[in-house]
Each structure stands twice: as structure tokens, then as C-alpha cells.
Write a structure and sequence with these properties.
Layout (H helix, E strand, L loop, with lengths): L1 H23 L2 E7 L7 H8 L2 H4 L2 E7 L3 H10 L4 E4 L2 H8 L4 E6 L6 E6 L14 E4 L5 H12 L4 H4 L1 E4 L4 H8 L5 E5 L2 H7 L3 E6 L9 E5 H6 L1 H20 L1 H11 L1
Parallel strand pairs: 1-2, 1-3, 6-7, 6-8
Antiparallel strand pairs: 3-10, 4-10, 5-8, 5-9
Helix pairs in contact: 2-11, 2-12, 11-12
């Protein structure tokens, strides 16, 4: 009995050592998220189903109010990878910080401009003198709004006011209280807001073929952490495939997010 007991203790001790080695081998990746939406579901699913852990990745996630502050954190090295719009990779590279889109999370632009149902605003041509809610200056919402308004000859810096609100609930509150005339909402917040009251879509960016949410990393991170980046991507791709094939897995991850 003593021999069996000693042997069992040695096996337990060996198992604990092995577990400790696995735990120590976990690589921490700091992920900055500009906005959580349908595009970030694979990230949540990978975490929920243990795919990151199986790849030896420990994910630290930081939520930001839009793309601009997220990219600032990426440029400073405060985060390793960001979930943000593809144009930020171009902007970073143009400023001497070589960056790459390592994966596209969406195939279309995810935002739409919403106003209250009783608003006098019916189209972009009515924006002069109004206040438009965006997530943050320099973000996808800011850049997209400036693009379409500029096409109409409206000067965004002179003819209207941009208000930095964030996403989701704060944007809806600003719209409901009249702090803004029009707000930018992402999928599926668009559907939730439209179903919850009298609202109307002023302009829908969701028809645009544009990689609105991507995983972006600086070359300096990828060069130093290539194996970790590949492990991270394997977990994300595995989660995306799961969501495409398993309705229950999709329901589970949607329930957690919303």
C-alpha cells in the first residue's frame, strides 16, 4: 500500500509539474478592440471554446471607444493586435510604422446612420447645422462620414458638429436625449435600435464592400512573435469555421456578447 501510495504521489507530482510547464508556456497577446460587433464573434468563440488556450495563447482584451484610440495604443506598443478598420494599416504605414492586416473579420462596412423617427433630417443633404455622433475622431465612423458628406460639397469641419460618443448604448442615449441629431451604429446595434423604437436610417454604409473590421499588427510585433501570431490566427479561424457550421455555438456566443 505504501508503495502504491508513493507511486501515486509521484504521478500526481509529475502531472502538476507538467501542468505548470504548460501554464508557463502560455503566450500573452494584448488585443485592443475598437468596437465589439458581429465581426468580433470569432474572437469570443475562440475564447469561449478554449481554442486560444489549446494554442498556448492567453488573450488580454481591452475595449476602446473607436478606432483612433485603439490604433494609438497599437502604435505605442500598449497592445499587440487591434480589431480596427483596414484604413488604419495604411495610415500607420504612411507614418513610418509598417503594419499589416493579418486577417479580415468582415467583408462589408458595418455602420449605418440613424435618426429619431420624428427628426427633420431625411438625408445627408440635411446635415448642415446638425450634430453627428461618431465613435471617436479619426475612427472609421469619422472617416466614412467625412467621405460621403464631402462628396455632396458639405464641409464637415464647417457645416456641422461632430460629437465623440462611443458605441452602442451611449450613442442611443445621445440620440434619444437630443444631444445629437444623427448617430452611427454598427451591426447588430442597428437592428436592436430599430426594433426598440421609432427610428429611421439616414444613410446605410452596410452596402459597402469594405473590410471594416480587421486584425492589424505592426511588423515589429510580427517579426518578434511570428509563432504566437500564427497560433492566435489558427484559433480565430477554427472559431470562425465553428460558427459557420454549428448553430448552437453561434447562439452561445451571441448570448454571451449580448
Amino acid at each position: 500500500d505504501d508503495a502504491h501510495g508513493a507511486g501515486r504521489e509521484r504521478r500526481i507530482a509529475a502531472g502538476l509539474v507538467a501542468f505548470g510547464n504548460v501554464a508557463q508556456a502560455q503566450t500573452v497577446i494584448r488585443l485592443g478592440v475598437a468596437q465589439s460587433s458581429i465581426g468580433t464573434l470569432p474572437l469570443l468563440a475562440a475564447d469561449q471554446n478554449g481554442f486560444f488556450a489549446e494554442e498556448g495563447i492567453e488573450l488580454d482584451t481591452y475595449q476602446f471607444r473607436g478606432g483612433a484610440p485603439t490604433v494609438q495604443a497599437l502604435a505605442s506598443g500598449s497592445i499587440d493586435i487591434c480589431v480596427c478598420a483596414g484604413d488604419h494599416a495604411v495610415r500607420l504605414s504612411s507614418r513610418g510604422l509598417s503594419a499589416k492586416i493579418i486577417a479580415g473579420l468582415t467583408e462589408r462596412h458595418g455602420y449605418a446612420m440613424l435618426a429619431r423617427g420624428d427628426s427633420e433630417v431625411t438625408g445627408l443633404e440635411d446635415f448642415s447645422g446638425r450634430t453627428l455622433g461618431i465613435t471617436s475622431p479619426g475612427s472609421l465612423t469619422d472617416n466614412s462620414a467625412r467621405f460621403v458628406l464631402g462628396d455632396l460639397g458639405i464641409n464637415p469641419d464647417r457645416d456641422l458638429t461632430f460629437a465623440s460618443i462611443g458605441v452602442g448604448i451611449p450613442m442611443r442615449a445621445a440620440l434619444d436625449t437630443g444631444s445629437i441629431d444623427v448617430g452611427l451604429f454598427t451591426t447588430p446595434d442597428v437592428q436592436a435600435v430599430m426594433a426598440g423604437g421609432d427610428y429611421k436610417i439616414i444613410y446605410d454604409f452596410r452596402d459597402w464592400d469594405y473590410t471594416a473590421l480587421d486584425l492589424i499588427a505592426l511588423d515589429r510585433f510580427l517579426s518578434a512573435n511570428g509563432d504566437a501570431a500564427r497560433s492566435f490566427l489558427r484559433a480565430v479561424i477554427r472559431a470562425q469555421n465553428l460558427l459557420n457550421e454549428d448553430d448552437e455555438a453561434l447562439r452561445n456566443v451571441l448570448s454571451e456578447m449580448y
